[in-house]
Amino acid sequence: MSLAAEILAILVSKGRFSISSLAQRLGINSTSLEVEIDRINEDMKFIGQFDDDMVEFNQVSELLCAEKIRAELGVFSDRFILNVVPETGSTNDDLLDVIRSGSAQDRYIRIAENQSAGRGTKGRAWLSIPGGSLTFSILRSISSKDTKKGISTLPLMVGLSIVRSLNAIANIDCQLKWPNDVLFHGKKLAGVLIESVSVSGQHHVVIGVGINICIPKILMNEVDQPIADLYGLGLSIDRNVLLGKIIVEMDGILERYFTDGFDYFRQEWCQLHAYQNQRVCFVLPDGQKLEGDILDVDAGGALVLKVAGKVKHFISGEIRINV
Questions:
Q1: Residues ≥6 apart with Cβ < 8 Å to 36
Q2: CA–CA dist 220, 42 (Å, integer)
Q3: 191: which strand partners?
Q4: How many CB atoms lie within 10 A of CB 84?
Q5: What is d(CA 211, CA 128) in angstroms, rounded to the nearest whole number?
Q6: 310, 274, 278, 273: which is closest to 293 by C-alpha?
Q7: Distance between CA atoms of 197 and 270, rounded to whole angstroms?
């Protein structure tokens, strides 16, 4: 954990400190601590400093509130069970535990101000601070007929719902990156992690979503890929309003998806794919790298590449852009 991340973690979990006591806890001098706080506060005052030499974490956006979110759901509000918590390890893990306990309820939504152990794809940690992210998970119980039809394209549908919502509410031009990222000008703005489990013959999926709202640049620079946040795009959006919009949009898309399948959305998805018809480096799960042109996404959600003159379909791997 970097010094900046450690400072924020301590202030988020432990509350107000004096500069001297926090520096002692971190094993650094007060001057070094103040320099690091200034770096954290470069664009937004994430840490407040007071005349009595005390510092504390600032909530940088409005608090999440179940009633405010429910108000945004309108006539659909009765479909969903909303559970907002100040902090948890992972909203996905929470819902997986609910499923395994036999207490699964369709459209149960777990929303956290802060995730201390949020997960992205490929085992990556998800960056999260209170108010700086929108992190939530939705439990969906899938009927046997839908399971038989296949739900491998579900991550693509979730990504599409996020892009539609962001583009509508923020009037921006987000795009998709196969299979489950949302980009703005090539930088990751949001991600999706879907996990599934069957209990007593009933299949359930947990749809985890993380959206960057306002993240310190010093932390963004530590991530192993370019990322963006809404604040950096000059946007100030009530997270409750945004979440309500996403929930309704996603629910509508999934209802159509379970009826008509991915083909109904396939053209729209490809039009929003940031790397459609582009040459990319494609990294296979075993680390092998291929050069190819992205042609399409097939009916099963596989990425279609033209590699060395041959058309190939890939169900897993990672797109990287040649520099």
A1: 3, 4, 7
A2: 12
A3: 181, 210
A4: 19
A5: 9
A6: 278
A7: 29
Q: Residue 137's CB: how many other CB atoms inside 10 A?
A: 29
Q: How far is CA 230 from the centre of its chain?
A: 13
Q: Which two tokens stand for residue 102?
A: 């036999």
Tokens of 118: 């949020």
Structure-token pair, residue 270: 């490809």
Rounded-to-integer distance, Cα 223 and Cα 5, Å: 12
Determine what percent of the chain falls in helix, strand and coil, rounding each to the nearest 5: 35, 30, 35
Say which DSSP state 75 is in: G
> Pairing mode, if any, of strands 108-115 and 81-88?
parallel
Rounded CA separation 107/86 (Å)? 20
Q: Which of 217, 200, 307 is nearest to 2 (CA)?
A: 217
Of 298, 289, 288, residue with least CA distance to 178: 298
Nearest Cα neighbor of 272 from 187, 189, 174 is 174
pLDDT in tens, the chain (323 residues): 799 999 999 999 888 999 999 999 999 999 999 999 999 999 899 999 887 789 999 988 999 999 999 999 999 999 999 999 999 999 999 999 999 999 999 999 999 999 988 766 655 666 788 999 999 999 999 987 777 667 889 999 999 999 999 999 988 999 999 999 999 999 999 999 999 999 988 999 999 999 999 999 999 998 888 999 999 999 989 999 999 999 999 999 999 999 999 999 999 999 999 999 999 999 999 999 999 999 999 999 999 999 999 999 999 999 997 54
Contact 249, 209 (CB under 8 A): no
Residues forming a β-bridge with 209: 136, 192
91: left (phi over 0), alpha (psi -120 to 50) or beta: alpha
